[in-house]
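cron nightly-structures :: item 1 of 1
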Amino acid sequence: MKRILLTVVATLMMCLGVSAQIQYVMKITKSDGSSIELNADDVKDVTFLQTGTPIVYAPHHFDLTVTVGKQGGMGRDVTTIMQSRDRLDQGAVVDFKNAGAEINADYSMEAIVKGKYYYQVPVSADRFVKLQFKNNQMQVIKQRPFKENTYNTRQYTHAWINDNTLVIMAANGDKDAIVWTKLNTDDMSIISEGTLNISLGSGWDSFTTSGILTYRESDNKLFYFYYNKKGSGRTATKEDKFHVAVINAQTMVVEQDNLSPFAAETAGSAYGELLQQTMFFDEQGNLYVAAFVDSSIGEEGKLLRIKKGEFNIDADFNGFPSSDGKLLTTQYLGNGKVFCYSRHDEKSLGTAIDSYAHYYSVVDLKAGSRTRMAYKGTEIPYSSGRFSQRSAFDPSVNKVYFGVNTENAQPQIYVYDVKTGAVSEGIKVAEGYYFEQIRLVED
């Protein structure tokens, strides 16, 4: 936080044959080096006013997730190991041999994280569970069996209405309706549940598995992004334009059901934001959502916007310039800066989860520009791995920690200083592991 420093400078003026006169001048020097001077006789009082509540960040650490044998995500049957680390900017190589915990047998890498806890539907798909990864072990804090509505592991979306009210939402078992459940995360009790008042469009037989959900506090509305489809799996026919359902967060009544002006699909529509972040609000209250369209280059990424107080996608805006492939994750860094992970849809690179075709960049929404992450003047090589949040933003130090699995080197974590734009090397991950996730978690 910038502070204004006050210094009082006394100037003694001596004149021959005249008694000494003392003139006091107040010099105000700002933290940026500029200054102004005021005659002390013109200053009646000096008062320091607090213009905002200081942000106090809770003590926190990083939870790293890796897989063995191949990249994970999207339900791949692969050994998945988690380990906590106090810092990622320096230290010995992170080895997961006899360090950390294998979680894939009982829990999913896809989870909701808030504060110090993880929330998810476990592999058993019979309950909601609140977890804490502590002392490199996953511990159950609270759990609650399903009541009426049921959910599959990995296949749901979510939004926080307040610090302890969590909404879970997904297509039902037949995928012909959208069900929801509100949870009190203090004790994991079910507050209420039901089915959204939206129906499949004519000619369609199912909803997308989960869709994407977020909450706008200013008017107490939930925004649910979904689409209709026919068939299943990769051969399914999808509706060209996705829907934006506007829901009263108190009554859970759908008040509007609007179509996107773009023939696009939102990122993560099959599994919500359980693996990666795809939505954010800026300081003005505008909502942004990652999406992609089918184009000549493949799946072309877009960053779409709903303006503050509005309910429709802005048809005149795309915040992801110079797209060369699918936009996968977004993290808002403040002041119009967005940290992105995307795929380069070049045929020679491939588009599979394990393809070395993914990279990081920073979007400047104000300038309308995008800059690829580089280290010592050289662009960081392409990484493998798609369905996961491979970066964490620590606002207490204004730095982003991001990891890569490059083809010719062991996994490496880099550190991006948001203020200066500098990129430095962090710690390395031992060979034989595939880097998957960094999560910032309270102690």
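cron nightly-structures :: done
Residues 1-20 have pLDDT under 50 and may be disordered.
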